[in-house]
Amino acid sequence: MSKFKILMPCDEANHTCDKTQYNDATLWEKIKLNIHLIYCRACRKYTANNSKLTKTIKKADVECLDTSTKAEMKKEFDRVLNEVSN
Protein backbone atom coordinates (compact mmCIF):
# COMPACT_ATOMS: atom_id res chain seq x y z
CA MET A 1 0.00 0.00 0.00
CA SER A 2 1.25 3.48 -0.85
CA LYS A 3 2.26 5.94 1.87
CA PHE A 4 1.00 8.86 -0.20
CA LYS A 5 -2.78 8.79 0.03
CA ILE A 6 -4.28 11.80 -1.69
CA LEU A 7 -7.87 11.48 -0.47
CA MET A 8 -8.65 12.24 3.15
CA PRO A 9 -11.81 11.87 5.26
CA CYS A 10 -13.67 14.97 6.42
CA ASP A 11 -12.50 14.75 10.05
CA GLU A 12 -8.88 14.75 8.91
CA ALA A 13 -9.61 17.63 6.52
CA ASN A 14 -11.13 19.67 9.34
CA HIS A 15 -8.13 18.93 11.56
CA THR A 16 -5.78 19.99 8.77
CA CYS A 17 -7.83 23.15 8.29
CA ASP A 18 -7.36 23.94 11.97
CA LYS A 19 -3.62 23.26 11.71
CA THR A 20 -3.40 25.53 8.66
CA GLN A 21 -5.06 28.30 10.65
CA TYR A 22 -2.12 28.21 13.09
CA ASN A 23 0.53 27.59 10.41
CA ASP A 24 1.19 24.06 11.69
CA ALA A 25 0.18 22.10 8.56
CA THR A 26 2.80 20.64 6.25
CA LEU A 27 2.83 21.34 2.53
CA TRP A 28 1.57 17.82 1.81
CA GLU A 29 -1.34 18.27 4.26
CA LYS A 30 -2.26 21.56 2.59
CA ILE A 31 -2.22 19.93 -0.85
CA LYS A 32 -4.43 17.08 0.34
CA LEU A 33 -6.80 19.56 2.01
CA ASN A 34 -7.14 21.59 -1.17
CA ILE A 35 -7.90 18.45 -3.17
CA HIS A 36 -10.51 17.48 -0.57
CA LEU A 37 -12.07 20.95 -0.72
CA ILE A 38 -12.61 20.57 -4.47
CA TYR A 39 -15.23 17.86 -3.94
CA CYS A 40 -16.52 18.41 -0.38
CA ARG A 41 -18.99 21.26 0.10
CA ALA A 42 -19.27 20.75 3.88
CA CYS A 43 -15.53 21.11 4.41
CA ARG A 44 -15.41 24.17 2.14
CA LYS A 45 -18.04 25.73 4.40
CA TYR A 46 -16.06 24.71 7.53
CA THR A 47 -12.88 26.22 6.05
CA ALA A 48 -14.66 29.45 5.11
CA ASN A 49 -16.11 29.79 8.62
CA ASN A 50 -12.73 29.01 10.16
CA SER A 51 -11.05 31.67 8.03
CA LYS A 52 -13.75 34.21 8.92
CA LEU A 53 -13.29 33.46 12.63
CA THR A 54 -9.51 33.84 12.39
CA LYS A 55 -9.82 37.20 10.60
CA THR A 56 -12.35 38.44 13.14
CA ILE A 57 -10.16 37.51 16.09
CA LYS A 58 -7.09 39.14 14.55
CA LYS A 59 -9.07 42.26 13.71
CA ALA A 60 -10.48 42.52 17.26
CA ASP A 61 -7.04 43.27 18.72
CA VAL A 62 -8.01 41.77 22.06
CA GLU A 63 -5.74 42.40 25.04
CA CYS A 64 -5.28 39.54 27.49
CA LEU A 65 -4.86 39.85 31.23
CA ASP A 66 -1.36 39.54 32.57
CA THR A 67 -0.44 36.48 34.63
CA SER A 68 -0.45 38.22 38.01
CA THR A 69 -3.96 39.62 37.48
CA LYS A 70 -5.22 36.17 36.46
CA ALA A 71 -3.65 34.67 39.58
CA GLU A 72 -5.32 37.30 41.80
CA MET A 73 -8.69 36.68 40.18
CA LYS A 74 -8.32 32.92 40.65
CA LYS A 75 -7.37 33.37 44.31
CA GLU A 76 -10.42 35.60 44.90
CA PHE A 77 -12.68 33.19 43.03
CA ASP A 78 -11.43 30.25 45.10
CA ARG A 79 -11.91 32.23 48.33
CA VAL A 80 -15.52 33.12 47.47
CA LEU A 81 -16.21 29.57 46.30
CA ASN A 82 -14.97 28.21 49.62
CA GLU A 83 -17.16 30.68 51.54
CA VAL A 84 -20.26 29.70 49.56
CA SER A 85 -19.65 25.96 49.82
CA ASN A 86 -19.08 26.04 53.61
SSE layout and pairing:
Blueprint: H1 10-21, H2 27-39, H3 41-60, H4 67-85
Helix pairs in contact: 1-2, 1-3
Protein name: Glycine dehydrogenase
Give a short overview.
This protein is an all-alpha fold and 86 residues long.
Describe this protein's structure.
The relative contact order is 0.10. This protein has 86 residues and is an all-alpha fold. It has four helices and no strands. The model has no long low-confidence stretch (mean pLDDT 90). The chain has helices spanning 10-21, 27-39, 41-60, 67-85. The chain has a domain at 7-61. Helix 1 runs parallel beside helix 3 (41-60).
Mean pLDDT: 90
The portion of residues forming beta strands comes to under 5%
User: Pairing-aware structural class of the strands and helices?
Assistant: mainly alpha
Largest sheet: none
Q: What is the general shape?
A: elongated
Helix content bin: over 70%
| N-to-C span | 63 Å
Number of continuous helical runs? 4
Rg, Å, rounded: 21 Å
